[in-house]
Amino acid sequence: MRVLRSFNDQWVFEGKDTVRLPHTAVELPFSYFDETSYQKVFTYEKTFEAEADWQGRDVVVHFEGAMANAKVSLNGQEIASHVDGYTPFEARLTGLLIDGANTLSVTIDGSENPAIPPFGGQIDYLTYAGIYRDVWLRLTSPVSIASVKIETPEVLAQSKSVTAAVTLHNPQGHALEGTISAMITGPDNAEVATTKTGFTSDTLALSFENLNDIHLWDLDSPNLYTLNLTLDTATGRDTHKTRFGFRHAGFTTEGFHLNGQLIKIRGLNRHQSYPYAGYAMGRAANARDADILKNELRLNLARTSHYPQSTWFLDRCDEIGLLVFEEIPGWQHIGDEAWQAQSVENVRDMIKRDWNHPSIILWGVRVNESPDNTVFYKETNRVARELDSTRQTGGVRCHEQSEFLEDVFTMNDFNLGMDEFDTHKTQPVALRDQSQCTGLDYKVPYMVTEYNGHMYPTKSHDQEQRQAEHVTRHLQVLNAAYGATGTAGSVGWCAFDYNTHKDFGSGDRLCYHGVMDMFRAPKFAASVYASQGDPEGGLVLEPVTYYARGERNIHGIMPLIVLTNCDEVEVQYGDFPPVSAFPDRENYPHLPHAPVIVRALDFGEDSLDGWGMSWEDGVIVGLRDGKAVIRRSFTSAPVPTTLKLVPDGDTVEDGQEMRVMISVLDQVGNKLHHFSDPVTIDISGNGVLIGPGIVPLRAGVTGFWLRADGIGEITINVTQARLGSVACTVSAG
Ligand code: GAL
């Protein structure tokens, strides 16, 4: 039987510290750091003894990802290397292990090696050095299952079929004969079908026909099936499980269809980076990001800008029904032929790693925003189509009329706001017409893959007026995408703020392009997306205001944008008669849920908005079908009353991360946006804090991640000078 064991523990980093993977070579400050600090060579070493039951088995160490240019040696002899920082690789130890202590050492090179993607030009993100993903020890029989590719042909037919292409691993050259038994199990683990066959080569094809009562994988019911394989040869038994789903995904000139149904894509781009730890986060944090995108931002797609991301993230997308557009590493720059050959290799590695994820609906086979290059991109497309004929290709470009070699024209459309840059352009439209971007006089499958971002960077603590404009721009593009018939949808830039190079961002090594900050705390613009979700899945009522007389230029809070999926909003200001307002369908005719815009005049001339008048409390109520369903209260004289601590759950597995959010609230439960005093974080028990122990609040909120270390309890204590301490306990195990 196959054994897969975590190999994350007890690595010695740079000859001194004993560390646990995932690990970042240099823990960075939140901002204003030198991004060259991790751009050098680092060494990890792990000493272990081969155990008795490894005898006669194939012994492999599997690395999910290391940044970058990894070289692996066993007892001083180099046994494996892998240049790309985003795809997995393996080191085979069989036959090389000695009695007693063995030392596996891994050197990685965090420098931005221009010979490999994504390097060679400037890139607007960081590529933090480290063995930043999990490492596994795998023991198998000498003949074992190397890879499985599952397809579900004609998936929308009543009765379904499954094919699986299985490749065997036989490094010792044993006789290739034996049997393979296969069983499909359903979402409830019940058996769906079985088959058994003999084989005489290292590739074999399995198929299942006439499967009935199969549940499709879709956004609301992401049903997952498992193909369980048992391989028997004279060398022993190997077992292997692969999850998959039954679904059809395709882009046409009408838009995007999932299982035959037209769905407007509403997505955001995600970088896999976190404050302090860079890329070094494991299953829990990556899975949590998927949950945030699906459940808090109510999106239906994430683009893994600009590289293959953690399989933990993709697994979670499979489990919760979040579509994914995955792409190869790179940013604007194309290197020489060897560089391009590596990029083609990246296409292969990405697709072979991820072809069984039902959530992935499109392969990105161009370097993001790079210039046309016919030979190179014909080859990336050819390889993608050859490896996976079931998915279409896309390739993200930002130039009009670029050469269309892919199946879907995926376009970064940063038109909105161009008037500020180009004085000749007076009437920016939120999105250009697809024919202007493609340069083609016929329609093609088309999706907008970025907008906003650097056109209007907005910090979570920026002034209210800027927040309102940030919100408005996201609303405008989203509305335009919903209105563009034939456009599959849009994917905005971006979900979370991220650390970046000096050549980008606000000088502090941060791009404030997210609708959430780096801790995934929402800015107002987050509610642009959340409010497009069905009310049944969660009501949203987010007035875009800090609720103060003098925050905006001149004064007042009007016009007030209320982001909501209610169909009416009632505003009660002081003792004035309540005012009702309705979704602004005139300006946002295409959105599922247009925002409500409340205007000062709705209250009557001068009734509320005078400088010098007393500022009063307010209540904003959201109604559906005439019934009040959600309410927000605002106090005219906020003071800090509550220090709130919200861990993402009450249990965390050993070695996994948990995010904890901290906020300071006023008397009626609103965040105090201008409260930036520090808080002290203290973790005791079986947990370790990631990042510093004293941090400021930003926009009245901050967060941190901890990592469980052992089995037991973790006590979290947060102290704020004016509000005292709050504590909570989570269990680690
Ligand atoms: C795009 C690029 C992204 C990001 C974004 C900022 O051009 O593809 O990676 O830099 O701009 O808006």
Task: Explain what the structure shows.
The protein is mostly beta strands. It is 12% helix and 36% strand. The protein contains 8 helices and 46 strands. The strands form 11 sheets. An 8-stranded parallel barrel has the order 21-22-23-24-25-26-27-28, surrounded by 5 helices. The protein has a 6-stranded antiparallel β-sheet with strand order 3-2-4-9-6-7, with no helix packed on it. Helix 1 runs parallel beside helix 2 and helix 3 (337-354) packs parallel to helix 4 (374-387).
Oligomer: single chain
The residue-averaged pLDDT reads 96
Structural class: mainly beta
Spans of 5+ residues with little confidence (pLDDT < 50)? Answer: none
Gross geometry: globular
- How much strand? 35-45%
Present as ligands are: beta-D-galactopyranose
Number of helices: 8
Count of individual beta strands: 46
Helix % is: 10-25%
What order do the strands of the largest sheet run in, or round the barrel if closed? 21-22-23-24-25-26-27-28
Instruction: Tell me the Rg in angstroms.
Output: 27 Å
Cα(first) to Cα(last) distance is 26 Å
Largest sheet: 8 strands, parallel, barrel
Explain briefly what this protein structure is.
The chain contains 8 helices and 46 strands. By secondary structure, the protein is mainly beta. The strands form 11 sheets. Strands 21-22-23-24-25-26-27-28 form an 8-stranded parallel beta barrel, surrounded by 5 helices. Strands 3-2-4-9-6-7 form a 6-stranded antiparallel β-sheet, with no helix packed on it. A 5-stranded mixed β-sheet has the order 39-46-45-41-43, with no helix packed on it.
